[in-house]
Amino acid sequence: MDAYKSSVDFAEATAFLSHACYEQDKMALRATLKNKSILSGLLSRLSSCSSHGRVCVSPVLVAQRRNNSTSPKLKVDFNQSTGVAVMHMQNPPVNSLSLGFLTEFCIAVEKLEMDKSCRGLILTSSQPKVFSAGLDIMDMYGKKLEQYEEFWRAVQEMWLKLYSSNMVTIAAINGSSPAGGCLMSLSCDYRIMADNPRYSIGFNETQFGIVVPVWCKEAMTTIVGHRNTELTLELGLLYNPSDALKIGLVDQLVPEDQVLATATKTMTKWLAIPDHARRITKSMMRKPTIDKIMSIREADMQQYISFISKDSTQKMLGTYLEMLKKKRG
Ligand SMILES: CCCCCCCCCCCCC/C=C/C(=O)SCCNC(=O)CCNC(=O)[C@H](O)C(C)(C)COP(=O)(O)OP(=O)(O)OC[C@H]1O[C@@H](n2cnc3c(N)ncnc32)[C@H](O)[C@@H]1OP(=O)(O)O
């Protein structure tokens, strides 16, 4: 009964999002992100739905949902016949994960998640040479406490949505993917990267004085093991594609012009597995990490706010931003 009620409540909440026009969607989600209690309610409902491999949505909602949407920062191409959506990140110049981008991203993933006909999601970039530059540093610099909170909630939400997705998720990494960009791809089921030695992927945070959150460490450890995580995070390492492949940070390298085609072919292989068996297995593998992270979510928020608002952290971020800008000039 509780599970049923959760499903209905969650469907109602998402119905609201689905019916609203895109700008209204964004406002609604951002209002939600501002409200801790509503958000954790929605999240626990989401995780209780997805952990059982069920999609909790009424057929009416599915019929009314827009499947092909173009928003300023994302382009989603959903092929009904294959059940695969390709999400192109288009937040120039470097697909930084700003609050605006993260909000649109969460809405887009949520909509696909609730659509029973969508079984696979390929995440890629429309920007040349960059998959994603990671978290938008401007959203972590010189802002008010409530803005840090809103931003971090969106970061947590993005990770949870991708990591706990029922869909098969494949990252088609067609450019550099430092820090938050790497985290995004690590949340997917499979990573295919362009074999171009000029591209890099990894976690460089400590190099400019930032500490990755504990859930980022947890997620990485499950993929590349304790030692590789320790080395990467402590030294703030970025890897070229072949070194990334060696430590298992990516699963496959292909020539740059074949990244998307390979992702599509790989998706077909994954979708040949019966959904229910794959979903339950995915949940079995990931649920312990998700549960652990959900239990420290608010503590993580407080740690982030206190760390990011410190004068010393702000000073380091300011210096790093200057350095990034000077690089061009
Ligand atoms: C003790 C307890 C602690 C508790 C927890 C604390 C948590 C603290 C926070 C932890 C967060 C961890 C998780 C993730 C963190 C991040 O993601 S931080 C962001 C890190 N990202 C980077 O360092 C990447 C920086 N960018 C680049 O290296 C390059 O831009 C690129 C991606 C390789 C692309 O290079 P290129 O094509 O040459 O473009 P550029 O000329 O360098 O850049 C173009 C413009 O874009 C701006 N820009 C680049 N990156 C960002 C960014 N991340 N955010 C905002 N803006 C960015 C750059 O400044 C250029 O701007 P203009 O000069 O104005 O054009």
Automatic annotation (TrEMBL):
Cellular localisation: Mitochondrion matrix
Metabolic or biological pathway, per its Swiss-Prot or TrEMBL entry: Lipid metabolism; fatty acid beta-oxidation
Keywords: Acetylation, Fatty acid metabolism, Isomerase, Lipid metabolism, Mitochondrion, Transit peptide
Stored InterPro entries: ClpP/crotonase-like_dom_sf, Enoyl-CoA_hyd/isom_CS, Enoyl-CoA_hydra/iso
EC number, as in UniProt: 5.3.3.8
Pfam families: ECH_1
GO MF entries: delta(3)-delta(2)-enoyl-CoA isomerase activity
One cellular-component annotation, GO: mitochondrial matrix
Reactions this protein catalyses: a (3E)-enoyl-CoA = a 4-saturated (2E)-enoyl-CoA; (2E)-tetradecenoyl-CoA = (3Z)-tetradecenoyl-CoA; (3Z)-octenoyl-CoA = (2E)-octenoyl-CoA; (3Z)-hexenoyl-CoA = (2E)-hexenoyl-CoA
Gene Ontology terms describing biological process: fatty acid beta-oxidation
Gene3D superfamilies: 2-enoyl-CoA Hydratase, Chain A, domain 1 (3.90.226.10), 6.10.250.170
Keyword Acetylation tagged: yes
Function: Key enzyme of fatty acid beta-oxidation. Able to isomerize both 3-cis (3Z) and 3-trans (3E) double bonds into the 2-trans (2E) form in a range of enoyl-CoA species, with a preference for (3Z)-enoyl-CoAs over (3E)-enoyl-CoAs. The catalytic efficiency of this enzyme is not affected by the fatty acyl chain length.
Family: Belongs to the enoyl-CoA hydratase/isomerase family.
Subunit structure: Homotrimer.
Full protein name: Enoyl-CoA delta isomerase 1, mitochondrial
